[in-house]
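$ run holo --ligand "6-O-phosphono-alpha-D-glucopyranose" --emit tokens
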Amino acid sequence: MCGIVGYVGKRDAMPVLIEGLHRLEYRGYDSAGLAVISRGRLQITKTAGRVQDLRDKLAAKAGASSAKTGASVAKPTIGIGHTRWATHGEPNEINAHPHTDTANRIAVVHNGIIENAEFLRDQLQASGVHLASDTDTEALAHMIAAEFAADESATLEDAVIRTLRKVEGAYGLVVVDTKNPDQLVVARNGSPIVLGLGNSEMFVASDVSALVRYTKQVIYLEDGEVATIKATDYHTATVTAGGTESSGIKVPTTVDADADDYELGQFSDYMRKEIHEQPDAIRRALRGRLEERFATARLGGINLDARELRNIRCVKFLGCGSAYYAGQMGAALVEELARIPADAEPASEFRYRSPVVDPDTLYVAVSQSGETIDTLMGVQELKRKGGQVIGAVNVVGSAIGRECGHGIFLHAGPEVAVASTKALTNMAVNFALLALLLGRVRDLSSANGERIVNGLRNLPAQVSAILAEDEGISTIANRYADADHMFFIGRVRGWPVAREGAQKLKEISYVHAEAYQAGELKHGPLALISPEMPSLVIIPSDELVAKNMSTVEQIKARGGPVIVVTSFAELPDTIADVVIRVPRAEPELEPILLNIPLQLFAYHAAAKLGRDIDKPRNLAKSVTVE
Ligand code: G6P
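-- output --
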């Protein structure tokens, strides 16, 4: 959702901002805009469309102005930009950011939600201010301007801090001021802001993907911090009850992503690229984390010693969407390998139901982006109640990672497509490591530990073998893409796989897909089986093969087409209309492999239907608002 970019330096700010906005498009948005300071005045361009529309508008404006003056105008070297996902007010050009005060002195871009916006807007209107938009953000621009009216000698940072003291809610924001045209003031409270340090130039963004093209040296702001950024220097301060305190010297972090990680290369879209990156992503997750000698895992980031690990009596995974299904896979792994009760719950449910927080439970907050608001709020609720929580996040410096303090980095590399693939796989792989670690401080024998270590090592090559079947799965998906509805059926180890498979199909192809536990079919959904309702049945190589085969028979007997995805090589091809085969793995790890053909199935079905695969309708990559 919403994205922020900012630039101050020596280059033409416009292309830097546009490029940054383009890189943030994957997050999901409905309108975009930017503001630069040109010859002492704000120049604002907005659109209710895509970043490309903004680019076209700017090109048209530039063409018109050079035709008029006949001269080339000095390029602006400072500016801010935004992609907006509408919360307050509909997604039109007026509500798009940046927002300004009445005199067009101040421009603001903002992520997050100001909770007392209505009150602030009423106050402004009562004092005679005309509000042009329906947004919470516009109030900030007027309030900052009012601070200057009250105290002419205030710095921009002072005016921003004084304003933020009156504001309740979450924000990541950037402000420019025509009277201070050499600086950007940024602030963070609940919504990520990262500074990019260049050579006599500085960048700001809500997400490093907008910066990596220009610099790898970044500083993540903490909640409650503000920063003033000039081309050649910057300072950060923490807002306290009484004033501000310098946050001291910050050591920049080197981003470990390359600009190339965000390029499509030979692929037509990011989802396919990310599906094919999975063998490497798994290798990265395993690097340095397998401890051969003791047949266990090494997860330094969780910061728990053997005694503390032993004291954990229960493990609970919290996440949303695919992260929740990955949590289900994790819970199964923990129960199987460590024999500790474990389960998963959608973070959105957890945060609202006043959960009983057990001090001996290890809670794991699962999130690719590390920004999902429901998961973040779940973590805060847990911390408030004294719960023990670690993060399992993919984005370094993200809100959930910071809030948890300790955790497991997923090491999937940047994931751009809205539909999660390699991040989900790496979640499951990392949970296998966690389960192995928890198991080995308990009763999991070293022989069994070794079996899992070897099983994990084999995964990248096994995933590559499945990906080599891409074309065959594409043919199958093309055959079924016209279905209006599909069932995804799984039992025990196959159940989270079925849920994730159904989710993937519906989110990118818009084909209605429902997941059912195999045993539940006869308690209702069997009534829906017909030649028009294909079922995809997951059959791992475990003691439940026979039961799963009888599920297939039940569906076939009612005329339902069946696709089987299995690792059980002995299963005859005649069992179903189509059989998709994956290599056999250690049984506990098989869900990781069985999920891969389902990603390809969803991908090819969506491609056949001509969907916008990387940006499915109504969805965002990271859901940072309610
Ligand atoms: C959104 C995305 C899903 C994702 C979920 C959780 O709904 O569309 O693909 O699984 O958020 O995201 P997270 O970043 O917390 O893993």
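-- notes --
Residues 320-323, 367-369, 372, 375, 418-420, 619, 621-623 surround 6-O-phosphono-alpha-D-glucopyranose (CB under 6 Å).
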